[in-house]
Design brief:
The chain is of the alpha+beta class and about 475 residues long. It contains 15 helices and 15 strands.
Amino acid sequence: MDNVQEETTRKNKQETACRTVHQYNKEPIPGEDMKKLREIAEDYRRVKNYVYARYGGIGSLSKLYPGYTVQNEMTASGLRSELGLPSVYFYRAVFDALGDIKSQWAATKTKLAKLVGQNENFTAQEKHYLRFLLKSSNAFEAILNQKAIQLPQEMQRKYEELSHEVNTEKLHRYLCRQVRKYHQRELVTNRADGFYLTERAYRYGVDQADDAGRKPKYGIFIATKEKRRRVFIPLTDENSYQKQIYLKLIPEESGVDISIPLVIKVRMHRDYTNEIGLSAGMRCMFTTQDGTVYGEQFWEIQEELAQYLRASAETYRREKANNAGRRKYRAQKARLDAKLETYINQEINRMIEQEKPKVIYLPKLPGNSRAGYDRRVNYSVGVWRKGLIRERLEQKCLEHSIALVEVFGKAISSECSNCGSMGKYSGNDFRCGNCGFEADKKQNAARNALKRGQAGNYVNKIMESDEKAGTK
């Protein structure tokens, strides 16, 4: 429980949190406009692959930070002129690819650090030396490229102290072998379904009405490869942002999904002091340890969407992209999706306001690919929005400084929350043959989630990392 309180304290110290909002096209995008956007996405992909191929190896490690050398070399490469790609897209693609390369090297270093820690053949001094190399980008790059290690004065002195205690040649060979073994050789992307836009690449506004009396529409103007020509996309809302955004193309639906990252202020609640256990379900969203249910209409709304998809599936496959039936399908599906998402948000907000939790314990259940998962599920289960519910719960907890803790979910519905024996349930009713305890199956699971969480039987990754850091 101490670790949970430490995590809550850590979150309370955070003043801001990130969330992503989405915008969508209000009407189908004309084929010619979609073609222009897809051309940008394809060129964006080509630039990224060029950067991957040229700077993804060990020889370019010294150029990755902060990346201006790469930017200058890409300018001199002539690729932008060859593609005719505006600079707002070209340089964004360059730094997007550099970010992927840096993430790849960070993952490799994390893997190597784990291997070093697990290697029982290394002495404490050897492990310390290898960790020093992994933390120092200059030293790491020098080892891989067979160069002399030259660091800032204070770090150089520290390096020399550590190197005198170990066999550096042996450890350098080990490091190089592991990099060759575990580092992904070359990044490549075959996807050309979207791209990032900086503020200079778009603007929000209203298009001008024409002489036929068409009403002005609010939307976003996106720069194209044609000079002073922009594609206008009417939007379903009238919000505007000044952020770097991501435009995902959905050509088969003549649409787009615009993702906008926002930084919001975290809310602190002095009266949020409770610890609660939750059990998630298909028919209702959540049940608490005291039997309170949230999202009772979830199944009804979910089934409405599932029935519509089921009834429309055969017709949808036969229809072509731009006919009236396809547009009708997309519009109705969007309305049902929005209805479900709105309900999920409302119920999670209601739960937080009513329960006032400081900590929420939620079971982590086996994934669909694991043993015991019944693949003979109906269509409703197939489109169940479990991921959306979890995503919205995580976001709301972050915004309200609530610690969300995953506990071990094995047998959580079958174990008696009163005595700990294994009981049985039929339908929604649980009964323990040992002590006679009876309860709703979901309530029993929520009680177990609370007990396991308070006993420290959680699998939350954030908690694990904090616990390990505290033992060093």
